Amino acid sequence: MRLKAALLTASLLLPVTGCAKTTGADSTRAASPQTADARTQGTPAREPASADLEPFFKQFPDGAFVLYDLKRGRHLRYNEARCRERFSPFSTFKIPNSLIGLDAGVIPDAEFVIKWDGKKYPAHSRDTPPFSAWWQDQTLRTAFKRSVVWCYRELALKVGEKRMREYVRKLHYGNEDASGPVNNFWLNSSLKISADEQVDFLKRFYNEELPVSKRSAAILKEIMTLEETPDYRLSGKTGGGPLGEGRFLGWFVGYVETRDNTYFFATEIEGPTYLSIRDERIALTKRVLAGLGHIKN
Question: In the 8-state DSSP scheme, what is residue 34?
C-alpha cells in the first residue's frame, strides 16, 4: 500500500496573485491575443506587455509563468514573486533524470527496453490515464512520453546515490539537493526548483552548456518533442503532485522553436484536485504561447 500510494502521489505529472513583469536587456511589454491577431494581419504590433498575461490566469491567479526570448535575451513573467518560489519538480525531473541516465551509460539510447516487474511495482488505476499505459515493458521514449514513474525509479537506482547527487550538483538543478531517497528525492522530497530555475536549466540544456555529452542531449531533445508543424516545434514535460490538503501543483516546462527564434517557458498552476490541473497546465501554456504569437492553437 505504501508503494502504491507513493507511486500515485509521485505520478501526478501530467496538467498565483500578482502582476507579470518583463526583464532583460531592455524593458519589454508582452503581447495579448489581440497583438497576435495584429501580427497575422500585417499590422505593426507592440512589444509584449506584462499585464497582458493576467487574463490568461483568471482561473489560476496563484500560478506563475516565465518565458525567455533567446534572441532578445528577455524574460516575460506572470507573478514574478511566485516565479522565484521553489517547489518539488515532480515529473519535470524526468528531463535531467533521462539526461543523467544517458550520460552515465545506464540507458544506451531511446529504444532501450526497461522491463516491468509487476511484483515490485504492482499495477493500479488501470482505467485512469496516464497510469493505464504504465503496466508493461517500456522504452526510454515511451517512459518519458507516458511519464512512467516506476521506470525512472529504476533508472535512478541504476545510476546510484553517489553519482546521482554528483550529477544534480554539477547540472546546478534547482536547490541541488538530492539527499532524499535516490528513487524518490524529486517527488515531494528534498529537491526543489522554481519556475525561473526551470527556464534557466532548459536554456543551458538547449545551448549545450551542461557537462554532458552532445549525444545524450540530442537523444533527449528528440524524445522531448510534443508537436511539430511547418512553423514551430514544441518540446516539453509535465509534472505535478500534491502540495497539501486540497492543493495540487501542475508543471509544464519546455521550449518552442520557431523559424527564427526559440522561447523557453515554465508554467506552474495550482488547483484543488489533480484533475483540475492535469490538462489545464498544457492548455493554458498553449493559450499563452498562441496569444503571444509563437504558436497556433
Answer: H
With b for 16 or more beta-carbon neighbours within 10 A and e for fewer, the 226-248 pattern comes to: beeeeebbbbbbbbbbbeeeeeb
Cβ distance 10 to 93 under 8 Å?
A: no
Please report the beta strands in 181-231, taking only residues with DSSP state E, as ranges in sequence order. Answer: 225-228
pLDDT tens across 183-207, in order? Answer: 999 999 999 999 999 999 999 999 9
Sign of CA dihedral 197, 200, 204, 207: positive
The β-bridge relationship of strands 113-114 and 262-271 is: unpaired
Beta carbons of 1 and 55 less than 8 angstroms apart: no
Residue 234 counted as domain residue:
yes
**Residue 186 phi/psi, 5° resolution?**
-95, 0
What pTM did the predictor assign? 0.84
Nearest in space to 203 (alpha carbons), one of 256, 166, 143, 269: 256
Which of 283, 271, 275 shows the shortest CA–CA distance to 243?
271
91 is catalytic: yes
From the list 32, 50, 88, 91, the catalytic residue is 91
Overall domain count for the chain: 1
What is d(CA 172, CA 189) in angstroms, rounded to the nearest whole number?
17
C-alpha cell at 51: 499585464
Strand partners, 235: 225, 255
Could you tell me the residue range of the domain that residue 69 belongs to? Answer: 2-291
**137-148: pLDDT as tens digits:** 999 999 999 999
pLDDT score of 49: 66
Question: How far is it, in rounded angstroms, from Cα 281 to Cα 259?
Answer: 25
What is the residue whose three cell numbers read 509584449? 48
On whether residue 6 sits in a domain, the answer given is yes
Alpha-carbon gap, residue 74 to 32, rounded angstroms = 17
Q: Quote the pLDDT of residue 127.
A: 82
Q: What is the CATH number of the domain that holds 9?
A: 3.40.710.10
